[in-house]
Model the fold of this input.
Amino acid sequence: MERIILFDTTLRDGEQSPGASMNLDEKLKVAQILEELGVDVIEAGFPIASNGDFEAVHAIATKIRGSAVCGLARATKGDIERCAEAIRPAARGRIHTFLSTSPLHMKYKLQMEPERVLEKVAESVAYARTFTDDVEWSAEDGSRTEPDFLCRCVEAAVAAGARTINIPDTVGYAVPDEYAALIRLVLNRVPNIDKAIISVHCHNDLGLAVANSLAAVSAGARQVECTVNGLGERAGNAALEEIVMALRTRRDVLPFECGIKTEVITRASKLVSTVTGFPVQPNKAIVGKNAFAHESGIHQDGVLKNAQTYEIMTPESVGLTRSALVMGKHSGRAAFKAKLKDLGYDLPDPAVEDAFTRFKDLADRKKDVFDEDIVALVDDQVVRGNDRIRLKSLEVLCGTRHRPPSAEVELEIDGIDSKHRATGDGPVDATFAAIKALFPHDSRLQLYQVHAVTQGTDAQAEVTVRLEEGGRTVQGQGADTDTLVASARAYVNALNKLLLKREKTAPPARPA
Ligand code: KIV
Ligand code: ZN
Done:
């Protein structure tokens, strides 16, 4: 069977989606789980975009050994040099350089004549090749590019040394047959295309990103670019988990293999959701909460008789353990450590200790502690590692006898503790008002959303908060058995992300 190269861009295109910023620690954690998944190439960021992006790509290139590490660069010397510097420590480093080729982009975005674009393609790829043998070139807005011109650009890029040629559907405009025909056309018409691998990169504006990617694979593409949970600009990118499980489940019509350990998918999805603050919709294919749930009596009956009646893949194949009751307040450290291992976590001792303390605290408040609770607890810890603002305590007075509701919040901001009491229209409003008084800011609350991690009235609440400040949006998450504590944690998490975003959107670093 032919091998498909899995190129993950969660940390680059995924992170570009409004509100989805990650700090260095979070990016490293995501990169590690991508490596564990068996992703072939990790696109770790856009090094010229900010010092933070540069540092993240550099740190990932230093740490990751099992996957190639790639950085993105526009077709300029400065971008390419900065990218080369960032990927230098990698065991296998790739420079991914791109230039728009569609009439619309060339005329309005680049304001460049096609012949000049063609020259720049060759120049930029050749320059990138002076730093590494592994150069990928992308024709931005490829699916809306005039086919003859696209073929000329691809030929020039391959001649200049690109070993991977990416034909993106940048705006999610293509439909499967048409996109497959474009890939076939490039394969048939470009004389030197045998020296490169064709890659596809699809956006989901029409909900066709995965369908387009698979159609392109059937047409001859051998690299697929995707993101965990389909995270990405606008409607997102093709979802890694959907591509991988389609390849695994429909081998009969898609006879290709990829090196992904599908059992890591659920954990990767959860981690990406937690660090970005983007919840996964319940009916999302493969990783949604309901993806393997059977509610109707007829379906339940069928599944009990033979799971294949309504399940085309097993929950275990994506790493979903049947929601078993796992631990209680009498469980000891050794059992907890074993459970963490079972769930796929390999944490250093201090992190295990911290998680154990929080587990005991949870078990005191919640009768049944499920696997999902432990995952939420550990991921929450990852997210808060480097926070500048921390929630120390919260006390809320509300109900029929307390009008107006009030909240007293204690925060630690850059190591200094302070307290404030505020009132509000409800307990959440009062809590947020107290936080705002302690950390004044101009952002507006765009979304406040609560959902339960497991079932039961003692379930942990997982809260998502989205803030907007000067066109920048960030999302924060928090989990706790107390919905108000979860809300405060989510709000504080969003503020920490806002601080990160402010740093990131400072003027771009100059190339060294
Ligand atoms: O969507 C796109 O065209 C991209 C390129 C940079 C590959 O993300
Ligand atoms: Zn993209």
Q: What stands out?
A: Residues 13, 168, 170, 201, 203 surround zinc ion (ligand 2) (CB under 6 Å). The domain at 2-276 is CATH 3.20.20.70 (TIM Barrel). The radius of gyration is 24 Å. Residues 420 and 438 are 7 Å apart (CA to CA).
